[in-house]
Write a structure and sequence with these properties.
Keywords: Signal. It is built from 3 helices and 10 strands. The protein is of the alpha+beta class. Strand 1 and strand 2 form a beta hairpin. It binds copper (II) ion.
Length: about 170
């Protein structure tokens, strides 16, 4: 599913470069879950959302593979790091919104152990324009290495393929 979205994005990029004026697609990629070293504590998921032709709002994220999740925003105030849940995230047209450590993230409670072993978690992103976009996240151990070596390598391969597409 993720691969299909990426190739549509790559094709759209090519169309734009060849002079077609179709709007850029809204899509999600670069997903990974960083497991918490403390199994009782929540883990975090990170993604990159690429805005399409019109501004939209991310209204929610779901997964079948965790007990609960929340969209969070981390901040540092007076040297104190904290985070708070957010209900929605604005995705401006044509802009990239990155979920990354120290900023926006998806907090996950009770990640399915079998999913962790498989090394991949699927999420659905729900947008204000009605789009529901499925995106996979590679599961990483607390040290950043892949929880499942095969899944981790496949993701790295996707990334390389992506870079190659962009170079065309
Ligand atoms: Cu959080």
């Amino acid at each position: 599913m993720r691969r299909a979205c990426l190739s549509i994005a790559a094709m759209a990029t090519l169309l734009i470069m060849t002079g077609c004026s179709g709007p850029p697609p809204l899509y999600v990629d670069g997903g990974y879950v960083r497991l918490n070293a403390n199994p009782q504590a929540p883990s975090a998921a990170y993604f990159t959302i690429h805005g399409g032709g019109d501004p939209v709002v991310l209204r929610g994220v779901t997964t079948d593979e965790a007990v609960r999740l929340e969209i969070h925003e981390s901040m540092t105030q007076g040297g104190m790091a904290s985070m708070k849940p957010v209900d929605s995230v604005d995705i401006p047209a044509g802009k990239t919104v990155k979920f990354a450590p120290g900023g926006k993230h998806i907090m996950l409670w009770g990640v399915n152990a079998q999913t962790v072993a498989d090394g991949k978690i699927s999420f659905t992103f729900i947008f204000s324009n009605g789009d529901r976009i499925l995106a996979d996240a590679v599961v990483q151990k607390p040290d950043g290495s892949a929880a499942n070596a095969a899944a981790g390598n496949a993701a790295a391969g996707d990334h390389m393929e992506n870079m190659a597409n962009m170079a065309h």
